[in-house]
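Lecture notes, part 5. Sequence design as translation. It can be helpful to think of inverse folding as translation between two languages: the language of shapes and the language of residues. The source text, in structure tokens, appears below.
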């Protein structure tokens, strides 16, 4: 069977690999010059070193049913920091170690509460991962995991002091309304992974994951056609073929003009987008001089202050106002991976972005530098080079990042699990043989390939086939 995949992000490549392994003739069409979508590692324009353009930390890659069956850890060298993430605070910061016990101990008075929320999740971690990936095939462990997740979603709001700040930083990843079920659900899953598989980075950058997928696809007869922006579905699909679209609802409405029923197109057009990212990549002459020296070895650092401060900043961004003190996510990849710099270099690369309003053109470099400086006096003096990537950069380089929303659509109660439309099989479309598989379908944003896994599984089921073996061979 001829299978066209439009888009080569992690979900597109996951679907392509599965369909090629199942014996189909697969071609992936990608607008960009290189495959990978959000898995992109580039060279700095004016510095000898490489940086991750999009994804940096990959807890979901180790946790996902797709990547586990693909044996990703046998194909990519993941480096896992002892500190998964930290929440920068004045004085003593809050730190999530890979070790849950150490986290509890160092959180002091609020540590016991953190343990109470995390332990049931860790006891049920495999089932929690399946639920997080929307793999709802019934198993006895699913009920235990659902109960643990429900308790964690509630428990995150009962935390006190430093544990509450730790939770606030991780729940802000989803840019969802603070205190909402989607924010806490995403936060609970990410926080559990911090103590389960950790928050690893691939040696050589996130593109290493894309390269592993592409090389498996090619080894099984698949092809990648880069530099081809598909404008009309009929360029790559005719009735009787299979197409798996690694694109968002807006892109699909455009591609499917004249093919899609009007009522479905209308539902796609109602899909909403959320806050955008404004990013900066710094090169420093030394590690960030965090006042709390434990943060020097953290893989990821959240900057946002107390829960109420983050909530205010996120709300402002959603209302279209650039926050004065935005929530900032920061990664320090070269604390672990020196291969990203020339041999012998003692420089450091820092990746950071702030949540800003959708479509905002603001260059957040200065705001982010100020935020870092307040928890790491002397930071500015270490900057050798920086490159800003505001929201329009993301919108222009990936049609799925509408207005610079890097999460493929607003994450709220209406769109967490029903993206892009309310149906039990959101990966299926009204066109027979055409499936959707992107961050705008469940389980949403992140490098997990699970939307691609779901779409390919449905496509195979419609062809009376089962999932092929995906292991290294
Ligand atoms: C700054 C930033 C930081 C992030 N940090 C993390 C992180 O640390 N960890 C994490 O897990 N995730 C992170 N993410 C999110 C993650 O990158 C995305 O959720 C993920 O890449 C989405 O995967 P996808 O398969 O849906 O498609 P994408 O990765 O979005 O790829 C879609 C591809 O489709 C192509 N395309 C779209 N339309 C067409 C068309 N019509 N024709 C041809 N090609 C088309 C695009 O060019 C693109 O290559 C980050 C993203 C950004 C931007």
């Amino acid at each position: 069977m001829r299978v066209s995949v439009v888009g080569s992000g992690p979900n597109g490549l996951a679907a392509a690999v599965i369909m090629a392994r199942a014996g189909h003739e697969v071609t992936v069409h990608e607008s960009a010059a290189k495959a990978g979508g959000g898995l992109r590692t580039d060279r700095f324009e004016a510095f000898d070193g490489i940086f991750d353009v999009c994804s940096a930390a990959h807890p979901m890659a180790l946790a996902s049913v797709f990547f586990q069956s693909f044996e990703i850890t046998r194909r990519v060298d993941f480096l896992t920091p002892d500190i998964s993430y930290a929440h920068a605070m004045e004085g003593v910061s809050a730190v999530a170690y890979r070790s849950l016990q150490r986290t509890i101990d160092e959180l002091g008075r609020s540590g016991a509460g953190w343990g109470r929320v995390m332990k049931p999740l860790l006891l049920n971690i495999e089932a929690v991962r399946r639920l997080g990936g929307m793999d709802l095939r019934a198993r006895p462990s699913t009920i235990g995991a659902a109960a643990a997740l429900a308790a964690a979603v509630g428990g995150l709001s009962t935390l006190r002091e430093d544990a509450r700040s730790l939770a606030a930083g991780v729940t802000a990843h989803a840019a969802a309304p603070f205190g909402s079920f989607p924010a806490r659900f995403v936060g609970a899953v990410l926080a559990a992974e911090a103590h389960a598989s950790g928050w690893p980075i691939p040696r050589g950058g996130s593109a290493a994951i894309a390269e592993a997928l592409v090389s498996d696809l090619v080894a099984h007869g698949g092809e990648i056609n880069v530099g081809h922006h598909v404008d009309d579905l009929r360029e790559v699909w005719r009735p009787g073929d299979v197409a798996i679209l690694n694109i968002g609802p807006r892109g699909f409405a455009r591609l499917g003009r004249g093919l899609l029923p009007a009522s479905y197109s209308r539902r796609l057009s109602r899909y909403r987008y959320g806050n955008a990212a404004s990013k900066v990549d710094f090169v420093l002459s030394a590690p960030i001089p965090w006042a709390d020296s434990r943060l020097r070895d953290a893989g990821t650092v959240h900057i946002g202050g107390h829960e109420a401060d983050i909530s205010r900043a996120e709300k402002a961004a959603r209302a279209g106002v650039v926050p004065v003190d935005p929530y900032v996510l920061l990664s320090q990849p070269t604390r672990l991976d020196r291969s990203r710099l020339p041999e012998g270099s003692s420089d450091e690369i820092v990746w950071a972005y702030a949540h800003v309003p959708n479509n905002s053109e603001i260059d957040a470099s200065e705001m982010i530098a100020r935020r870092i400086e307040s928890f790491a006096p002397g930071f500015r003096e270490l900057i050798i080079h920086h490159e800003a990537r505001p929201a329009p950069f993301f919108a222009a380089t990936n049609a799925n990042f509408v207005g610079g929303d890097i999460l493929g659509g607003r994450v709220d109660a209406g769109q967490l699990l029903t993206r892009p439309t309310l149906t039990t099989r959101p990966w299926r479309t009204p066109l027979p043989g055409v499936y959707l598989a992107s961050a705008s379908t469940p389980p949403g944003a992140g490098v997990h390939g699970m939307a691609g896994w779901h779409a390919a599984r449905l496509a195979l089921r419609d062809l009376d086939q089962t999932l092929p073996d995906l292991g290294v061979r």
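The translated text above is only one of many valid answers, since several sequences can fold into similar shapes. The domain at 2-40+206-273+407-462 is CATH 3.50.50.60 (FAD/NAD(P)-binding domain).
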